[in-house]
Structure to design on (986 residues):
């Protein structure tokens, strides 16, 4: 069987752990770890668990579900440009957003030709387990293949990258030279791991990044060989989860963090320091306010790293976890508004062209999409979250098949989660835009609390450690623009409700990108105005220093 | 969002709420209270009286049960306000402090807030479920099937039984006794105590309420005495049961105090007596009314998982929880609820909210996204839910596997008095024979 748990919904009611303990377990009080490919021998129990989940977060593969075939799908509504049975939709990107988008197209009643293109050879798989239960060896890397929630009836082009887009001819160009024509295009090419800044160091044996199933397979093998020490470069979510698995496996691990604390880039220094204390409690050698300057090797194998404070960390495995790079290169020259910041779109997932005019036929979803959100100052932002990929793909698919009057906007409040050191950390809203933070409920000492984030008097985010049930309330408060700091009497009030600066790094503005790239406008008449893209830096120049959390 | 401030009791909304509520609790309507729940739900959040609000909408209840401004501790009610027949003042000592020394359902963690709730619940969970005892309930599947089949064997040559007497009651009671470590032969005594304790919700008037409160107090005292003696025994001679675990375990949160052990045991014993029995009876009744679902269940026993959840949506045994309190002024579903108000959570109404469930009165086990509230939700979600789930699912599968041509003798059957814990008092069914196990 195949399944996935929508952890954005999970509130740790534990019904699955009771009913199917072979496949669902808790680490600590609330953190769910599950087997995404349980054996058929447990089928009855899995069905009980899925039915029992109070938030219906367990999604089972339905490719052989007879009720799907019996179901009547809605006819595509009439619109100015209906997507009839002779139409062609191409999805570029065969990961979570691409798959869920394709499924949503079918669920919306699209009966035409559907092609899914992906550069990796595997069927769409789920990435969050790769840094958790796969890395720890609880489940096999292959088991993370995503369940199919619909009968897709798609043409798959896996293992072939898209290399270009011809908007005039409405064709996607593939690495093998083929051209695939479309009436509507969904871009879901996501991100890739940011490689170590120096290719020599990156090429050493024992240096890893973690993004793909292949990465996790290789890193898992390296951990199984019981290295003397693992060095994790970067204290973001991936880096912290890798460190957590290392400690689970009783491997010595050092985490080097450029900022004042792990997770500080996403959650700010106040909550980051708590995460750092948790790491130290679990035996992590945590080094903050340092960067790794060089990875040093011997005979082609890594032997350690030099840090900016002059110290040397001996390590035979180095995991570079310094964030992600968006897969936009294939769109260069296409005339779409795309770049390091992502592919820019409106709230309905329709991609802007370089002139800032919205396209009718090109949509984007997932990590690569950069969209405006009214709750967060209507700023354009890209969200590298599982939940965002799912929800945005659904909105994009809906808008691909419906007419203008029925269009949806992608306005959900972002949610993400991490499981590390026996805790489930969840976030709603966008902590990174906050200027202040306050622990509102629970106890930091017990590692069970909620922190609420504000920006200029408005609540913009909340983060919980092992308090997922409370977070649901804050999600709504954020959407409704609740005042910050919150002043209501509540249950479980935190002992010291101090207002503190959130301690987030100042966000880079788009001008930082403009230092590398210029958009220039030419023309004198409305009919002549054009935006063109002009790279400012020479191609042989080093890319800018890798960003670390 | 528009905010309605429902002032006074003269608004038409309040009058219609009071009328609909009176119909919901009227025993004459117990067989089908749902049309009246639907009338209540016309205002998803409505004022019942000066200090009481009823919440019937699915989304509104979800908002409510996750809202940290909501307390489950009746001691936070505004002064002079009573709830379910209990006056919180009566539960405080001379200094006005919570009377923690007298064990009672009202002091159990179901009526406490975090963090004390969380500590007691996890100290109890340690002996019942994940993370420390993860496979405990799952390992009882075989026992459950055996007990159910023994009870069905006990039908003997009868061709008609009262399913409540013959199975729906004795089965879960046997299980809760086994889990807690209470001798099965003492069961008739605490059956009576349990009935008296929950009967306060059945009061017909102020005088009756006073009498029922007195009886409930007496029953609580007797039950406490019984459990206290049993706890002493478990301290001297620990067994592999929950009560032994509670009295003897010295966990990270320290040992549970004796009074908390008794509060918890009272709650689990009552929970195990008053809800699962209704679920089994409601389940058999509903399935006998839907032969097409029954046919599929016999062909495909795995289907019971979804059948059960749909039963729980349509016929939740705990229909109303009248014990929430607003700790601050708050707006719910567009209605302003003042601090100190009592809030009644109407699960049975939310489970049929047409804004959330398409065709909500239809029994449709294939329903997608069946996120019903049959076991409540939030931090107070039913503690015993996993046990009840397996008990009922196993009971339904075995009853319909073994009885030949089962049918209802009386439809609708007679119902118990309690409006909040709803279920048939008797469920006579006839059949042509009993297949071998």
């Amino acid at each position: 069987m195949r399944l996935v748990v929508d952890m954005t919904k999970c509130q740790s009611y534990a019904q699955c752990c009771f009913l199917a303990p072979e496949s669902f377990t808790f680490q600590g009080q609330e953190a769910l770890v599950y087997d995404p490919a349980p054996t058929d021998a447990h089928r009855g129990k899995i069905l009980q668990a899925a039915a029992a989940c109070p938030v219906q977060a367990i999604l089972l593969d339905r490719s052989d579900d007879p009720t799907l075939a019996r179901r009547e799908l809605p006819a595509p509504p009439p619109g100015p440009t209906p997507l009839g049975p002779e139409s062609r939709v191409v999805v570029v990107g065969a990961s979570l957003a691409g798959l869920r988008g394709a499924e949503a197209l079918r669920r919306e009643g699209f009966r035409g030709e559907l092609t899914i293109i992906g550069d990796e050879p595997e069927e769409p798989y789920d990435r969050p387990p790769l840094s958790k239960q796969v890395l720890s060896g609880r489940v096999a890397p292959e088991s993370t293949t995503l369940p199919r929630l619909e009968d897709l009836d798609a043409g798959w082009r896996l293992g072939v990258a898209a290399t270009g887009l011809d908007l005039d001819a409405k064709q996607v160009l593939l690495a093998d030279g083929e051209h695939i024509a479309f009436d509507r295009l969904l871009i879901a090419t996501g991100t890739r791991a940011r490689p170590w800044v120096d290719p020599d160091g990156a090429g050493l044996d024992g240096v890893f990044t973690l993004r793909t199933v292949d990465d996790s397979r290789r890193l898992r093998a390296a951990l199984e060989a019981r290295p003397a020490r693992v060095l994790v470069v970067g204290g973001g979510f991936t880096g912290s989860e890798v460190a957590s698995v290392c400690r689970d496996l009783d491997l010595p691990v050092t985490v080097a963090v450029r900022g004042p604390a792990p997770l500080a880039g996403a959650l700010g220094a106040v909550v980051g320091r708590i995460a750092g204390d948790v790491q130290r409690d679990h035996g992590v050698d945590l080094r903050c306010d340092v960067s790794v300057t060089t990875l040093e090797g011997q005979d082609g194998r890594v032997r350690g790293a030099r840090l900016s404070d002059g110290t040397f960390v001996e390590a035979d495995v180095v995991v570079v976890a310094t964030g992600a790079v968006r897969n936009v290169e294939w769109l260069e020259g296409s005339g779409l508004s795309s770049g390091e910041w992502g592919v820019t779109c409106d709230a309905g997932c329709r991609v802007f062209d370089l002139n800032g005019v919205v396209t009718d036929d090109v949509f984007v979803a997932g990590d690569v999409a950069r969209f405006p959100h009214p709750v967060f100052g209507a700023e354009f932002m890209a969200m590298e979250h599982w939940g965002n990929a799912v929800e945005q793909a659904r909105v994009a698919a809906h808008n691909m098949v419906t007419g203008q009057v029925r269009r949806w906007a992608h306005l959900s409040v972002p949610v993400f989660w991490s499981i590390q050191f026996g805790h489930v950390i969840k976030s709603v809203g966008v902590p990174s835009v906050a200027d202040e933070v306050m622990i509102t409920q629970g106890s930091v000492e017990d590692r069970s609390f909620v922190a609420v984030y504000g920006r200029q008097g408005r609540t913009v985010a909340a983060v919980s450690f092992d308090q997922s049930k409370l977070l649901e309330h804050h999600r709504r408060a954020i959407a409704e623009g609740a005042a910050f700091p919150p002043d209501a009497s509540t249950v479980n009030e935190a002992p010291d409700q101090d207002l503190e600066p959130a301690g987030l790094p100042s966000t880079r503005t788009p001008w930082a990108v403009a230092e590398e790239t210029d958009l220039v406008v030419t023309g004198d008449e409305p009919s002549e105005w054009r935006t063109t893209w002009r790279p400012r830096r020479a191609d042989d120049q080093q890319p800018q220093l890798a960003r670390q959390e | 969002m528009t905010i309605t401030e429902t002032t006074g009791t003269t608004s038409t909304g309040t009058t219609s709420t009071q009328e609909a509520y009176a119909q919901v609790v009227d025993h004459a309507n117990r067989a089908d209270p749902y049309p009246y729940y639907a009338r209540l739900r016309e205002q998803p959040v409505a004022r019942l009286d000066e200090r009481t609000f009823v919440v019937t909408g699915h989304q509104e209840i979800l908002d409510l049960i996750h809202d940290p401004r909501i307390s489950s501790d009746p001691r936070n009610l505004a002064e002079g306000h009573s709830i379910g027949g209990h006056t919180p003042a009566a539960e405080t000592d001379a200094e006005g402090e919570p009377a923690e020394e007298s064990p009672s359902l009202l002091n159990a963690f179901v009526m406490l807030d975090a963090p004390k709730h969380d500590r007691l619940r996890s100290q109890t969970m340690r002996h019942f479920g994940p993370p420390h005892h993860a496979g405990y309930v799952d390992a009882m599947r075989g026992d459950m099937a055996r007990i159910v089949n023994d009870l069905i064997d006990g039908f003997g040559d009868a061709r008609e039984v009262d399913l409540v007497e013959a199975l729906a009651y004795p089965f879960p009671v046997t299980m809760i006794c086994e889990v807690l470590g209470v001798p099965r032969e003492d069961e008739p005594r605490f059956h009576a105590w349990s009935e008296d304790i929950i009967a306060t919700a059945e009061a017909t008037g102020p005088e009756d309420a006073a009498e029922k409160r007195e009886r409930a107090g007496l029953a609580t005292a007797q039950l406490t005495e019984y459990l206290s003696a049993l706890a002493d025994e478990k301290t001297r001679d620990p067994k592999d049961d929950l009560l032994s675990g509670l009295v003897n375990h010295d966990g990270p949160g320290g040992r549970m105090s004796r009074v908390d052990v008794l509060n918890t045991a009272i709650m689990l014993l009552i929970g195990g007596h008053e809800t699962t029995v209704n679920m089994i009876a409601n389940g058999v009744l509903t399935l006998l009314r839907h032969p097409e679902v029954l046919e599929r269940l016999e062909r495909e026993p795995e289907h019971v998982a979804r059948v059960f959840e749909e039963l729980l949506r349509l016929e939740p045994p705990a229909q109303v929880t009248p014990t929430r309190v607003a700790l601050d002024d708050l707006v719910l579903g567009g209605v302003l609820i003042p601090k100190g108000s009592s809030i009644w959570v109407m699960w049975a109404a939310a489970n049929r909210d047409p804004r959330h469930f398409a065709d909500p009165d239809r029994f449709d086990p294939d329903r997608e996204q069946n996120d019903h509230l049959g076991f409540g939700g939030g931090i107070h979600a039913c503690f015993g839910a996993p046990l009840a789930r397996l008990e009922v699912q196993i009971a339904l599968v075995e009853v319909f596997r073994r009885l030949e041509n089962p049918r209802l003798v009386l439809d609708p059957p007679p119902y118990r008095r309690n409006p909040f814990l709803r279920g048939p008092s008797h469920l006579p069914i006839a059949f042509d024979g009993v297949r071998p196990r």
Notes: Residues 539-549 of chain A have pLDDT under 50 and may be disordered. Residues 422-540 of chain A form a domain with the Enolase-like; domain 1 fold (CATH 3.30.390). The radius of gyration of chain A is 23 Å.
